[in-house]
Amino acid sequence: MRDAGRSKRSTSITVVGLIVAGAFPMLGFAAWLFSVAGATVPIPGGGNIPSIFAPASGHARLIFDLSLFVLAVTGIIFAVVFGLLVWAIHRFRRTAANADREPPQIYGSSQIETAWIIIPVLIALVLFLTSARVIHVVQDFPKPPGAVDVTVIGHQFWWEFRYPGLGIVTANELHVPVSDPSHPRPTFLKLLSADTDHSFWIPELGGKTDLIPNRVNQMWLDPQRTGTFLGQCAQYCGTQHGKMLLRVIVDDPAGFDAWVRGQQQPGNRDERAAAGRRVFETTACLNCHAVRGTPANGLFGPDLTHLMSRSTIASGAAPNTRENLRRWIEDPETIKPGSLMPAMKVADADLEALVNYMQTLR
Questions:
Q1: CA 176/CA 231 separation, integer angstroms
Q2: What is the CATH number of the domain that holds 289?
Q3: Domain for residue 302, yes or no?
Q4: How many Å apart are CA 155 and CA 157, to the nearest integer?
Q5: Contact yes or no for 245/315 (Cβ under 8 A)
Q6: Using CB atoms within 10 A as the burial measure, which of 129, 185, 236, 283 is most buried?
Q7: Is the backbone peptide bond immediately before 157 cis, with ω within 30 degrees of 0?
């Protein structure tokens, strides 16, 4: 009787364990629902919480559809195996009536052995072929006429975007045109690193691609609706990796052309901010930053020619407001601890003039 009681407790524990294991897929489903709901939650600086479950490009749709297919196949396998385990535990559990008997032992069933070899091989083959097809489409996507070329350079801890065909250099906010499937205009990215490993990832527009020193990687985006899409560095690259954010602003054709024309203009020379421009040009600012049309041509920090056209500063760490801009210049540690931006030791009057000048760079 004691053995029978111990056996029942063991069976109960096993069933509870299986039930707990079966709860993980439900938790995954709940996470999916949360991600979908979160995609509509606005955040400071524009955009929504990014979600891999809300693809907005053909690139991301390919990966999403493949993920759902793999999830469906593995989900069916899980359900079958889990169901058989529960059935076997219940059907062949030890009871008082069979406590003194050993269950029937089956050896050398060629049918069962053939089935558990052929079925997994077929499943693996199907998954391999579907994955290979998506990899081929993503890696060998043809470049159509009119595609936009952008060179992406990862820095600690910000993003530099160069449009070689358009003569534009900007930072942290990537503008691309919408790509209508009937008139595709994808954006091709050449990915470089200025220091350590980074990873470029916009969940709603495509998969992750690493930026590795002394290596050129590539990817493409074909967003099919306008809006602001959030991403970030997905590879640990230092203390401020978590705040190495980026925004992709997808414009309609007219909006993108207007943005290009604006970005191609030299830096604003508003004489009302001449005092601040002198501060900028006579301090360490011009050693790191560039403003077209001025002596400043630094490469270590972001190009500031059209700073105020961006919605955020410090690679998305704070909205681009006058107060935050002043804090960022005066003491970057209050916004982004561990960043490589030095605190500018300037007098209050010079700081005020410098902020006034920064706000004219539109």
A1: 14
A2: 2.60.40.420
A3: yes
A4: 5
A5: yes
A6: 185
A7: yes
What is the rounded CA–CA span in Å between residue 170 and residue 229? 17
Can you list the alpha helix ranges (DSSP code H) found in the chain? 2-38, 58-91, 110-139, 253-263, 274-282, 285-288, 322-330, 348-358
Tell me the pTM: 0.81
Determine how many CB atoms are found less than 10 A away from the CB of residue 16: 10
Q: Is residue 275 part of a domain?
A: yes
Asked whether residue 21 is domain-assigned, the answer is: yes
Q: In the chain, how many domains are there?
A: 2
pLDDT tens per residue, range 276-322 = 888 988 888 888 898 988 888 888 889 999 999 999 999 989 999 99
- In order of 8, 89, 235, 347, the CA distances from 13 in angstroms are 9, 11, 41, 71
In eight-state DSSP terms, residue 243 is: G
End-to-end CA distance of the chain: 85
Q: Is the dihedral of CA 123, 128, 130, 131 positive or negative?
A: positive
What gap in Å lies between CA 51 and CA 32, rounded to an integer? 9
Closest by CA to 326, choosing from 361, 356, 286, 289, is 356
Structure tokens at 90: 């219940």
What's the one-letter identity of residue 228? T
Query: In whole angstroms, what is the distance from residue 124 CA to residue 173 CA?
Result: 41
Residue 179's nearest CA partner among 143, 151, 221, 215 is 221
The domain of 81 spans 2-98+110-139
Report the alpha-carbon distance of residue 307 to residue 331 in Å, rounded.
18
Q: Which two tokens stand for residue 176?
A: 């691309």
Cα–Cα distance measured from residue 314 to residue 328, given in angstroms and rounded to the nearest whole number: 8
Query: Which of helix, strand or coil describes residue 73?
Result: helix
**Cβ atoms of 45 and 335 closer than 8 Å:** no
Q: How many Å apart are CA 273 and CA 357, to the nearest integer?
A: 5
Q: What is the rounded CA–CA span in Å between residue 215 and residue 141?
A: 20
